Amino acid sequence: MELPESWADMQEPLLEGMCFTLKYLGMTLVEKPKGEDMAAAAIRRIVATARVGARKFQKVILTVSPRGISLQDADTKEMVENISIYRISYCTTDKLQNKVFAYVAQSQESGALECHAFLSPKKKIAQAVTLTVAQAFQMALDLWEAAHA
């Protein structure tokens, strides 16, 4: 994934955390930590299950920072989950379901690989979330390297 030219200008807000309001579609277990085909298949499973359920999706505020991803309920502001950047192995915007952003992370409890999918209001937002997570990875790496230099 290519980072845009203006990526250096984005470091400031990213340190604080950038917020996106999305709808949580669900989670499925996956075999591999990364890969486009694996993610596409996982997203298909999640979307199919979500369609059958016909329930209202939980609206969440997803915050991306170099520490990782945090999720809070958009209505109650209650913290749902905090995922360390070091547990996230992959993130993507699905090619077919292009409003869907997904990430793969290792579960803290079981160690299993989980793919979590979110629906964004627009394709551009799903892409922005994916790009922001990629930038957070890069910053976390830069910060880690600086600390160990």
UniProtKB/TrEMBL annotation:
InterPro entries: Adapter_Engulfment-Domain, PH-like_dom_sf, PTB/PI_dom. This is PID domain-containing protein. It comes from Lamprotornis superbus. Residues 17-142 form the PID domain. It comes from the Eukaryota. Pfam families: PID.
